[in-house]
Amino acid sequence: MKKIVLFVISLMVLFFSTDLFAEEKVISGFKNPESIAYNKAEKVLYMSEFGSGLKPTEKDGAGSIRKLSIKGETLEEKFLPDPKTKIVLNKPKGIAVKADKLWVTDIDVLWEFNLDTKEGKKISLQGAQFLNDVIIRDNTLYVSDTQGDQIFQIEPADYLSKSHRPVIKVIAKGKGLSPNGLCGEKGNLYVAGYDFGGSDRGLYSVSSKEEVKVLLPPFGQLDGIAHTKDGKYIFFSDWKTKSLYKMKIGGKPEAVATGFEGPADFSLWEDDKGIHIAIPDLAKSEMRLIDISK
Predict the structure, then answer these.
(1) What share of the chain is helix, strand, coil (3-state, %, to 5)?
(2) How far is Cα 81 from Cα 75, in angstroms, rounded to an integer?
(3) Is 0.85 surpassed by the pTM of this model?
(4) Which residues does 156 contact at the CB level (< 8 Å), separation at least 6?
(5) What number of other Cβ atoms are within 10 A of residue 274's Cβ?
(6) What phi and psi values does residue 221 have, to the nearest 5 degrees?
(7) Span 158-180, pLDDT tens digits
(8) 253-274, pLDDT tens digit by residue?
(9) In terms of Cα–Cα distance, which of 204, 223, 213, 206 is closest to 169?
């Protein structure tokens, strides 16, 4: 009987999604992980960790960036900041990685690091209240300010070796998006909304002319967001239902995984085997790896 029960549970895990074959692996032992980024150049993951509980605005110097294999094995627990420097991270959140550069938000500043030398440089964003996610498109950064209901546009993205500040512009300010997660490699920006007041937010697209289109009406407290390479599907996480969803553009969301406490900013990448997702559970101090084959 016990073997039958275990077999049924295995099937439930493997076939949780209605039209995709998914397999999950849960890894624990982290310190309140908030965001994960996949570096295609190295084929590794970078994870931001609060390090001292769920206090997202506390400047206690406890934050760090962990380096992991794509199987979830820790390669370097405190990859950043380098202890040889005087750099301090407090509550690092959204991460973007491209080639040998890494960007990470930290409450009211944005850091850029060189992955080889671990040299870092921060810039403050005037008027920022709660910096959250960061993405890079070509040579431009986009940073969400959830509490400030705005998105910062920063160019050039690589300001580490520059003596002057990059050009900073505010877009989509006061649109009621409460932007948390960001994605979009070209064309419109996709935005996942999270309202600290408890109201539901949805998914939105923002054009280069700052025109806002609702992709999903108010749904919950949304965090991470990513889209598939072909642009047909959006994946997003929701703290209200404690779930990860996928949604076809113009369609309805379908749960891919449930049972989280704090499903935060995840990473999605694809290869010949299918879609891979590494999603942190901020509240449980866990990471869930989800492999989806079509």
Answers:
(1) 5, 50, 45
(2) 15
(3) yes
(4) 139, 140, 162, 166
(5) 14
(6) -110, 90
(7) 999 888 899 999 999 999 999 99
(8) 999 999 999 999 999 999 999 9
(9) 206
